[in-house]
Amino acid sequence: MTTERSLIPNPSLVAILLVIRDSAGGNLVFHYPPQPRAEAAHNTSTWRVGETNTDYTSSNSSFSSSSDDDDEADDRNSRSTVRLYGGGAATEKSAVTSQRSRSYDQRSSRRRRDSDHEYDEEDDDDDEDGAHGAEWEHVLGFRHDVISGLLNVPRALSRTRFELSVEQFVFLGYPCYNRPDGTWQRRRREKKPKPETPKTDETKDQEDDTADAVNDEGDITGNDADDEDPDALTLSRSKSPNPPPSLRKKFKREPRKPLEQVPSKLAMFHVVFVMSPPQLEYHSRMNDMYDVAKQFTLALKTQQAEDDYVARETERIIELRERGEKRGDSIHELWSRILRESTLADAIATLYQQISASKIAALKVNDFDFALQIPIMMETAILPSISEPQLPGMHLTTLHTLGSTPSEDEDMLLTPHLALLFLEDVDDIIKEIIQEQDQGSLSASFVQFIQNCKPTLSFAQMISASSPNGIIHPENPEYQYIEYFARHLIYWRKARAIMPLHYRRYYIVSPNADMKRLVPQSIIFNKLFPALPPLPKMLSLLSGKPRPYSAYIPSKDHRQAYMEMLAWLMRYGWVTNLLTFAFLKIPKDIKVAVRERQAREQAEAAVEMIQAASISAATATAVNSTSPGIISPGILSPSILSTSVEKSIANGTAIPNAKTREGMDDIPRISLSTGGDSGASNGRPKTGWSDITDSSNPAPPRSIGASTNTPTTPFEKPQLESSSGQLEDSILYEPSQPTPLESAWIERIAEGQPPDIGVIFDRLVKYLNGQHAIEGIALREAISKRELKRVLNAMDRYIVYSRHW
Amino acid sequence: MSIKCIFYSYFDADKGPRVLYQVPENSVTPSSDTPSQPPSLFLFDEISDYIIPKQQLCDRLITFCRNRYRLLGYPTCLEDDKYDRNEFIFNFVIVLDESEEFSSYKPVVKKLARLFKALEEQTGFLWNEVTRSSVYTLIEQVMEDLNSYCECMIPINESNTINLKLFPVIPPPAPIKAYHVPISTVRFESIMDSNWDLTMQRIIPYIDGVNSVRRIAELADADYTLTKKCVSELLYYGCIIIVDVFRFANIYAVNSDLANFVNDTVLHEECQGYISSNGRLLDFPTILELYTSLRQGLSVVEWSLENAERLKDVDVRRFIQFGIIKGFLYRVQKYPVRIDDGSGVVVPLSSQPVAGLGSSASLTGLVTGPPMLDAAGSLAAAKTGKSVTTGVSGGLMVDRSLPLLRYLDGAHHFDSICTDLQQSEKEVLKNLAAYPIEIIDR
């Protein structure tokens, strides 16, 4: 049971530490911020975030800061204490320190003798002598040498996820050791002519690779593909876009000339992210940060391999620290000098500042540009209920739109028909790109793309406007550029993909609109659209029964301005697109007709079957007994026959399954005593624990469906008529995977229609499960809107529509 | 959810960190019979630094991840002359799957450490080789009991017992508002006894799925703040769920969770039983059509009239409530917003006329309104947090429209305004007649 992913950003980052190990031993070289505080992790977001401590009753999660009359919050905060080591009064602290340091010395010298560990932590003591009393002697309440000893991990833990918690602090990292020969450079795979016949000098390398691979297996989130070539991943995240991956080869920068394989002085470096996540969100917060930590480390590792970058930088930082100590600089003087003079320190500082503010960190190490972020949710399908954490202002949509990276969730066929909605002023975005200009021609075409983008214009339309013969294949290179640019803008949180705005579509005031922003936004709105009705008026108009947007536009001349306003309203989450979803209803008369026909056919088939020697008697009876009246073997081929038997078996086993579920639910379902009619407990909604836990987990959109739909999904549903023989109207749950009987119903429905409608209806059936927006179907299936309308109208009797976002 | 392994390790003066007992065997160190075979979970020697740490890191909870396992330990350090080098460090470590929710184990690990520390201090339990030998059986028992029963009670000697229990971690409840309506999910009469909190005992009879929190406080003649705390507590333990006030003038519409409802046949039967007013059950497609015909801009009254025929066997209130409880229906709230006559922008609260603070302050002393109104006023003060003094409740008595103005910045819906001011929506609207307002449905 892992904690659910919260939609509310909360990096929980306290500090970033850089620990190295060289010939002189382990050392905490740099940390940022200079004086980290545990509370910093909780002040970063606008959401009220509780405090973690070991007291399990005062566990916490993120709730809206808008919970203004929430007196318990203060209780909880005051109850939780941050216990730092030696963090008491100053006098007490120094006393403890001196005492402890004595015993530490004893201990470490003993360790030296006793343990056969390959690394020698006693070297930590060296810089301690001179540094006594310096402000940076304690980090997070730990002594400098203690913390560097702790994070100076043994080689066995190299290149695996490092996760250590000491009370409320969690230390997360991806330690990197050099190769056993003392070098950092990974030899290019291409150099190996034939891996199965390795040359002698490469054997070692290979062994090392396999060792790495073994190590990496212990890595849970391990997307280790990027391990080989972090450039491929991170380069694409530089501020100006690069060409799409498929076209990138020619742009790929020349690898720098490999240096002589000189062993570096640096044996290990370890960038450690200190976190203090809320307990209930522990796993998701840690996993999010681990992705950042690992990517940052891998980028540094590449640079270290190229020209000993990390070693050089750490040397410089250590030198600055020593000088600063001698001069008696204050910690702030010293830190600002370090940030000025070391690009690595500067990168760490930037990373900390941006990540802890839930922003994107644009980094430059050793002239290598890349960006890191913890992705934030831009839209959600689920409207939080009143007892769930609120996400005011977040856009609501069930469409699987375009993400910053391609994912399986996306609807490949639909994406070309989406449009980009900019979340900032287009001119500002362009200005920023021009400032960053270092990609020449590419950035020109990027700017052009941004200028051509309209929230009313789908990507496909953008292309067909420039080349009139346009049916768009996802492989179309022009489209690939567009998609790539779009993803780039989405990654940088400059835009969001939406269903193109259209005056014939329906828009409602989003139930998730952030009403607290109404006052300031109404003023901005007035300035932007002085000629249009003011914001409250507009929202009030959009409040009534849903009407197409054109109903609010007074005349054709106003259309342009009203569409611009709509884009603005969408941008700030004031409105959302009301989409239509459809369920397939099977009326009783269809079922009766099918049953009659099947009975007839079955009787005929039974006769045939007795005659057919090829089919064994056993199968025949099995078919007859397990699926009475469902299949007519005369029509179906034997292979389908056998699957249908399996299905009915699955159906049979599914019933006790469902029973146990019910039984489990029964325990908390004691009763829902509402109003005066608490007597009849039968059939009350189950609102017990299961419900509460469900509602407290806002994250996965399909969670409820997933929990009921175990692998046997489509067959699990009991067929209404099979038990009693009584036929009723019913809704088909999963028309894309119908049982044979359901197929027969669908066929029967289509039969009554002209053939052309029947053909299109066949293509539509799979969408009629209430989860596909009708608005997207025409685009997806390349059916004209008129045709679609005609078919849906013809089938009106069999379709139940629902409208939401 | 289960413990994969518990082991006892200590710092041996000659051999360094060692694992003395582990359940099951060979989990973290290889067995002596087959030293070449690696332990089943991970290699203790690689990570012993984090199990038996430096003295400075002792006496605190330390967790470490290795090989997709999470180790929870509380290294303990004792100083005494009798030990080699005057100190003795030991750690009882619980190993879980890395992905497991582990917070409920943290107090357990801590308690285990404290207990053995006490035992060691009292009798040298761990140092003495004879008593020490029982450790294996003890941790074996702890692991078995915690995995099977989530608790254990194992007597060690006449004065010491291992008493452990895993408590589930529950997220904090949502903040309770005056207009929230609690619905019980348990039979209070069967679980409540005379030891319960007095306010709790008072308010529980009024939790009926209809009354709002404020109304409950009023009916039970209980303090509003205490009532709110009680309701919050009940919510935390899942004894209630929270919905909004049901009125026939309300507007509801389906949301994106609808497909989940349609896909859950168990829920259909539940729904059919719950919404029926006379025992006759509606077929599911009709129920679905009824739910989907609820939409923005259509009040329940209008909707009932439109569907009167199909609703004749249906308790409309329960019909709506079912959708809200199951989460596929949402309430469309109405927000009155005061706009500026000229520009049409929303009038911010700061520029709302405050009923001449000086005079209203003096009024407070003179006019003592009914206690509920007073509470409403101060609640309003707490809500807006701006330019509102205690004088407001006095002002409230003078001009009934004035406190209203504080709610008109768009951040307050009618439910919240009406419960706070104890006025009906109609009254509120009547009092607002003099001001230009827009109503936004969200």
TrEMBL record, chain A:
<feature type="region of interest" description="Disordered">
    <location>
        <begin position="38"/>
        <end position="132"/>
    </location>
</feature>
<feature type="region of interest" description="Disordered">
    <location>
        <begin position="654"/>
        <end position="727"/>
    </location>
</feature>
<feature type="compositionally biased region" description="Acidic residues">
    <location>
        <begin position="204"/>
        <end position="231"/>
    </location>
</feature>
<feature type="region of interest" description="Disordered">
    <location>
        <begin position="181"/>
        <end position="258"/>
    </location>
</feature>
<feature type="compositionally biased region" description="Basic and acidic residues">
    <location>
        <begin position="659"/>
        <end position="668"/>
    </location>
</feature>
<dbReference type="GO" id="GO:0038202">
    <property type="term" value="P:TORC1 signaling"/>
</dbReference>
<dbReference type="GO" id="GO:0034198">
    <property type="term" value="P:cellular response to amino acid starvation"/>
</dbReference>
<dbReference type="GO" id="GO:1990130">
    <property type="term" value="C:GATOR1 complex"/>
</dbReference>
<feature type="compositionally biased region" description="Polar residues">
    <location>
        <begin position="671"/>
        <end position="681"/>
    </location>
</feature>
<dbReference type="InterPro" id="IPR056603">
    <property type="entry name" value="HTH_NPRL3"/>
</dbReference>
<dbReference type="Pfam" id="PF24064">
    <property type="entry name" value="HTH_NPRL3"/>
</dbReference>
<comment type="function">
    <text>Mediates inactivation of the TORC1 complex in response to amino acid starvation. Required for meiotic nuclear division.</text>
</comment>
<keyword id="KW-0732">Signal</keyword>
<feature type="compositionally biased region" description="Basic and acidic residues">
    <location>
        <begin position="193"/>
        <end position="203"/>
    </location>
</feature>
<comment type="similarity">
    <text>Belongs to the NPR3 family.</text>
</comment>
<feature type="compositionally biased region" description="Polar residues">
    <location>
        <begin position="42"/>
        <end position="57"/>
    </location>
</feature>
<feature type="domain" description="GATOR1 complex protein NPRL3 C-terminal HTH">
    <location>
        <begin position="739"/>
        <end position="800"/>
    </location>
</feature>
<dbReference type="GO" id="GO:0051321">
    <property type="term" value="P:meiotic cell cycle"/>
</dbReference>
<dbReference type="GO" id="GO:0005774">
    <property type="term" value="C:vacuolar membrane"/>
</dbReference>
<dbReference type="Pfam" id="PF03666">
    <property type="entry name" value="NPR3"/>
</dbReference>
<dbReference type="GO" id="GO:0010508">
    <property type="term" value="P:positive regulation of autophagy"/>
</dbReference>
<feature type="compositionally biased region" description="Basic and acidic residues">
    <location>
        <begin position="102"/>
        <end position="116"/>
    </location>
</feature>
From TrEMBL, chain B:
<dbReference type="Pfam" id="PF06218">
    <property type="entry name" value="NPR2"/>
</dbReference>
<protein>
    <recommendedName>
        <fullName>Nitrogen permease regulator 2</fullName>
    </recommendedName>
</protein>
<dbReference type="GO" id="GO:0005774">
    <property type="term" value="C:vacuolar membrane"/>
</dbReference>
<dbReference type="GO" id="GO:0005096">
    <property type="term" value="F:GTPase activator activity"/>
</dbReference>
<dbReference type="GO" id="GO:1990130">
    <property type="term" value="C:GATOR1 complex"/>
</dbReference>
<dbReference type="GO" id="GO:1904262">
    <property type="term" value="P:negative regulation of TORC1 signaling"/>
</dbReference>
<dbReference type="InterPro" id="IPR009348">
    <property type="entry name" value="NPR2-like"/>
</dbReference>
<dbReference type="GO" id="GO:0010508">
    <property type="term" value="P:positive regulation of autophagy"/>
</dbReference>
<comment type="similarity">
    <text>Belongs to the NPR2 family.</text>
</comment>
